[in-house]
Structures are given as structure tokens and as C-alpha cells.
Amino acid sequence: MAQFEEVSQKSKLHPKPEGLALQYGTAGFRTDAKHLDHIMFRMGLLATLRSKKTKSTIGVMVTASHNPEEDNGVKLIDPMGEMVTAVWEGYATQLANTEQDSLLKELKDIIEKEDIDMSEPASIYVGKDTRPSGASLSRAVLDGVSSLGGKTHDYGLVTTPQLHYMVCCCNTHGCYGSPTVEGYYQKLSQAFLQLTQNKRLLVDGANGIGALKMREMEPFLRSKLQVVLSNDSSSGKLNHMCGADYVKVQQKAPQGMNMGVGECCCSFDGDADRIVYYYTDSKGCFHLLDGDKIATLISTYLKELLTQAGLNLQIAVVQTAYANGSSTRYLEDVMKVAVCCTKTGVKHLHHAAQEYDIGVYFEANGHGTVLFSKAAQKQIQELVKDPNTNDERKRAVKLLESTINLINQTVGDAISDMLVIETVLAIRGMSVQDWHAIYTDLPNRQLKVTVSDRRVIDTTDAERRAVTPEGLQDAIDSLVKKYKTARSFVRPSGTEDVVRVYAEADTQVHMIIMLIIYLNIFN
Ligand code: 16G
Ligand code: ZN
């Protein structure tokens, strides 16, 4: 077919290394950048099909988030800014792994299965983070799109959440905002400026795109937030000894940050969709405020506003198995907020959060956002306009409205989350120390273990229990029984060829003993 002639020609410029098989994992494809050229071309093809199928703009983000600088990756963004569906993830894996000579056949199979009208136009938004490999890999995506006649808009260097935002703006015809980087800064800063007072904040940009975009955004914040940037990609290596993942997993401050005692600091990850906060006290002790602390702060704030506004909306917090037991207990027992646990990976949390009027979701690693249902947004907007609303209710409901504008509802967004957190702290008159004191984390650690085949471990109950191999869960159960409030689980990683082990217990010593016993189980 003449239609596929160009695909056939151009695919030769992006040949697949024979035998190489990769999988569309938790957050798309992610591996050494050397192996990704053909994947990018093919994801350009697939995004074009998805665009024709949905009659909407689709996003393609070239990033490997918190992975080392040598890696890269790609993920597709669906029309409302969400992750693509599981069925299309399956197509992505099939298309990526088919050998060169059967590429057209595979493509036609998808077209047939999905009954795609190839005469529909296609529109694809493309973005990339700061990795050196990003330029050529995003060109491969553009090549894939154009070989199927799709139109592209290349945003160049953007954070992952910025691209999600653009896609959503485009497909909602401007209702969500204007699909430009400037439109993004304007929307967030307008909401922020209404809300807050002056504050100084130290930001670790992970030597990545978040640092670059923070600099761009600064003038919009009109000194209300004085951002002191470090690891701002001028010379340092992306994610190396810095960034949100490093700080969370190592439980220590990033290198290259000049922290004064008690000063409020935060770290972004390599594509700026995660954030964690921290400070050191006068004794030099490091204190982390992770995704669980963020979820607690935000949900407490929203719940208070709902009460003051007299709105009867259901608020829930969505967590994963990694959520610290103390946070779950605090939310359920003290805050009386519903808590739900899902599998790791943003798509699972996002999906669960959509079930509530207000769904606050955060992974402990700092990835998260707040979703407001359409009905909840409508109620809030109506109450703002209602002339009979008294002053106290009006103030609360206006704050709710501003929070909706400040939050990036398409996906977790370090910049947007940072502005929400700063706003909540300012309005409630809280310091980072007050926030930290809301509850005390149980000592916890995660380790990664290399095994010959991580797929031997299968889990259930939102990854909190192992079904296979036989005997593993029994061993965990007898370990956990020994200590107060202990909790532990093992799961295969969705992004690396390793198994992750997590343990928490009442004391540091008990937690470490658990981990040592664990390592013996695996060796
Ligand atoms: C990906 C996920 C992140 C999750 C992590 C777990 C997205 C956008 N990102 O980075 O949410 O926490 O994977 O990795 O979904 P793991 O399976 O290797 O532990
Ligand atoms: Zn990320």
C-alpha cells in the first residue's frame, strides 16, 4: 500500500537491533539510550494511530525520569493527559519488539484490531528532558509521526507534567488553560499570587529540566517565592547524587546544596514530576518530608476548607504499599479520611483517585497530585458565585477554587505541588518543622536485590503480599510478627531488572535486622 511506503523507507533509518526485546513498563520504555532509536520511531507511529483512533492530540515524552543520564525512555500521553490504556501499552510492546521485516504487518494488525480510519488527521505533541540523547531520539519520534502523515508540535525541552498539561489543554479546547509553556506559568502563578506571602525556598533541580523551568517561571512568581536553585544543570550530571529519588532512597540531603540549619528545602526528580521536602536540625539530623507527608498536609488542608465551606464532598487519599504505616494510621484514625491502597505506578493511583469527589494521591517517592471530580468543581464554583454565602464560607470556598487552579490535575507535577505546599504552609502559618511534627515516620528502608528471574515473584493485595514463590510470604509473616508495627513486602520492579524489598518497624534496629534476614532469604 502506498500509504505505508514512507514508513517502510524511513524505518530503515531506524533499524531494530535483531533479537532486542523491551517492554512498555510502569512508565513507558526505559533503558540505555543506545538501544532506543527504533523504539522512538515506532512510538511515533503508534502515537499517530492513537491520535487517529481518539481523534485527539496525543503526547510523546522522551525522558527516563530519575534514571542515570545515559538512559532514556519514552511514554505516551492520552487525550486528557493520562497514561495510555493497558491495551495500548500491549501494542507498544508488540510494535517495539517486532523484527524489521514484520513491522508493517504489525502496524496493520493494530489498525485492523482497533478499526482505525487512516484518513483521519493526527496531531502529536512531543517533549524531552535535558538528556544529551534527547535531541536525536525525539527526532526519531518526529520521523515516525511524519511517515504516517501526522502533524507534530515539538515543544523541545519541557518537564513531563508540562507536556501532560499541554495535551489536556489542547483536547479540552483551552478550558484547562492555554497549551503553551507561558500559559502554564501564568495559570499556576496567578493562583499562587492570590494565595501566599514571601518565602525563601532551596530547590535541588537534579541537574535536569525542572531547574531550567524553575528559572523560567521565577519572574512569574514576583519574588513571593524566592527560589534558591542548586544542581541547576549548569555543569553537574543529571540525577547524580541529587534529585528526589536520591534523597528519598538514601534518606540524606543531595550534594551541592548549601543548607542552613532548619531551612526549608526540596528536590525535584529528572523530569520534574516528583518532589520531596527536607531540612536538617541544629544537631545536624536530616528530616525527610516525603509523598506521604505531602498527602497528609494537603488532605488536612482541603478537609478543613470543606468543613468551613459547609460542603459535603468525599475526600480520600490514595497510597501504595510504600506509604509509611504512621501516615496511614494518622489519616485514618486522626484525620478520619478514607485511605485506599493501589499497586505502584501513577496510572493505578490516578485511576483510584478518580473514584472520589476529591482524590489526593501520592506515592511515598513524591509523585502525586489531587483530582477534583467535575461535580465537585461545579459545586465549588457555584458556591463562590452564590451571593448568600457568608464571609467565612466564601473565604474557604475561594481558597478551594484557587487550589484547583494551582494543581496540575493531569499528573504529579513537582512545580505545581511545590506551589500548593508553599501555599498551604503560608495559609496555615506552619513551618517545615511544624509540618514534619504532624506524625512521626516509622523507621523504614528499601533495598534492591538482583535475582536470576524477578518474575518468579508474583504479588497480590496491592503488592503487599507475595503469592509466589511458595513459602516466601510465610517467611515474611514470621519475620513481621517479631516486631511491633512491623510491615514488609517484596515486589518485582516495573522499571529495572531487580526485586525491591521494603521493611518498616518500630525501631531502626528492628528494621535493619529484618532487612538482614531478608537478604539471607534471597541468597
Ligand atoms: C515509575 C512510576 C512511578 C513508580 C516507579 C516504581 C510513573 C509515571 N512512574 O517511575 O510512579 O513509583 O516507576 O518503580 O508511573 P519500580 O517499579 O521500579 O519500583
Ligand atoms: Zn519522574
UniProtKB/TrEMBL annotation:
<dbReference type="Pfam" id="PF02878">
    <property type="entry name" value="PGM_PMM_I"/>
</dbReference>
<feature type="active site" description="Phosphoserine intermediate">
    <location>
        <position position="65"/>
    </location>
</feature>
<feature type="domain" description="Phosphoacetylglucosamine mutase AMG1">
    <location>
        <begin position="290"/>
        <end position="428"/>
    </location>
</feature>
<feature type="transmembrane region" description="Helical">
    <location>
        <begin position="509"/>
        <end position="523"/>
    </location>
</feature>
<dbReference type="GO" id="GO:0004610">
    <property type="term" value="F:phosphoacetylglucosamine mutase activity"/>
</dbReference>
<protein>
    <recommendedName>
        <fullName>Phosphoacetylglucosamine mutase</fullName>
        <ecNumber>5.4.2.3</ecNumber>
    </recommendedName>
</protein>
<dbReference type="Pfam" id="PF21404">
    <property type="entry name" value="AMG1_III"/>
</dbReference>
<dbReference type="InterPro" id="IPR005843">
    <property type="entry name" value="A-D-PHexomutase_C"/>
</dbReference>
<feature type="domain" description="Phosphoacetylglucosamine mutase AMG1">
    <location>
        <begin position="199"/>
        <end position="276"/>
    </location>
</feature>
<dbReference type="GO" id="GO:0000287">
    <property type="term" value="F:magnesium ion binding"/>
</dbReference>
<feature type="binding site">
    <location>
        <begin position="491"/>
        <end position="495"/>
    </location>
    <ligand>
        <name>substrate</name>
    </ligand>
</feature>
<keyword id="KW-0413">Isomerase</keyword>
<dbReference type="InterPro" id="IPR016066">
    <property type="entry name" value="A-D-PHexomutase_CS"/>
</dbReference>
<keyword id="KW-0479">Metal-binding</keyword>
<keyword id="KW-0597">Phosphoprotein</keyword>
<keyword id="KW-0460">Magnesium</keyword>
<feature type="binding site">
    <location>
        <begin position="363"/>
        <end position="365"/>
    </location>
    <ligand>
        <name>substrate</name>
    </ligand>
</feature>
<dbReference type="InterPro" id="IPR016055">
    <property type="entry name" value="A-D-PHexomutase_a/b/a-I/II/III"/>
</dbReference>
<keyword id="KW-1133">Transmembrane helix</keyword>
<feature type="domain" description="Alpha-D-phosphohexomutase alpha/beta/alpha">
    <location>
        <begin position="120"/>
        <end position="167"/>
    </location>
</feature>
<keyword id="KW-0007">Acetylation</keyword>
<dbReference type="InterPro" id="IPR049023">
    <property type="entry name" value="AMG1_II"/>
</dbReference>
<dbReference type="GO" id="GO:0005975">
    <property type="term" value="P:carbohydrate metabolic process"/>
</dbReference>
<dbReference type="InterPro" id="IPR049022">
    <property type="entry name" value="AMG1_III"/>
</dbReference>
<feature type="binding site">
    <location>
        <position position="271"/>
    </location>
    <ligand>
        <name>Mg(2+)</name>
    </ligand>
</feature>
<feature type="binding site" description="via phosphate group">
    <location>
        <position position="65"/>
    </location>
    <ligand>
        <name>Mg(2+)</name>
    </ligand>
</feature>
<feature type="binding site">
    <location>
        <position position="500"/>
    </location>
    <ligand>
        <name>substrate</name>
    </ligand>
</feature>
<dbReference type="GO" id="GO:0006048">
    <property type="term" value="P:UDP-N-acetylglucosamine biosynthetic process"/>
</dbReference>
<dbReference type="InterPro" id="IPR036900">
    <property type="entry name" value="A-D-PHexomutase_C_sf"/>
</dbReference>
<keyword id="KW-0472">Membrane</keyword>
<comment type="function">
    <text>Catalyzes the conversion of GlcNAc-6-P into GlcNAc-1-P during the synthesis of uridine diphosphate/UDP-GlcNAc, a sugar nucleotide critical to multiple glycosylation pathways including protein N- and O-glycosylation.</text>
</comment>
<dbReference type="GO" id="GO:0030097">
    <property type="term" value="P:hemopoiesis"/>
</dbReference>
<dbReference type="InterPro" id="IPR016657">
    <property type="entry name" value="PAGM"/>
</dbReference>
<feature type="binding site">
    <location>
        <position position="273"/>
    </location>
    <ligand>
        <name>Mg(2+)</name>
    </ligand>
</feature>
<keyword id="KW-0119">Carbohydrate metabolism</keyword>
<feature type="binding site">
    <location>
        <position position="269"/>
    </location>
    <ligand>
        <name>Mg(2+)</name>
    </ligand>
</feature>
<feature type="domain" description="Alpha-D-phosphohexomutase alpha/beta/alpha">
    <location>
        <begin position="52"/>
        <end position="84"/>
    </location>
</feature>
<dbReference type="Pfam" id="PF00408">
    <property type="entry name" value="PGM_PMM_IV"/>
</dbReference>
<dbReference type="Pfam" id="PF21405">
    <property type="entry name" value="AMG1_II"/>
</dbReference>
<feature type="domain" description="Alpha-D-phosphohexomutase C-terminal">
    <location>
        <begin position="470"/>
        <end position="509"/>
    </location>
</feature>
<comment type="pathway">
    <text>Nucleotide-sugar biosynthesis; UDP-N-acetyl-alpha-D-glucosamine biosynthesis; N-acetyl-alpha-D-glucosamine 1-phosphate from alpha-D-glucosamine 6-phosphate (route I): step 2/2.</text>
</comment>
<keyword id="KW-0812">Transmembrane</keyword>
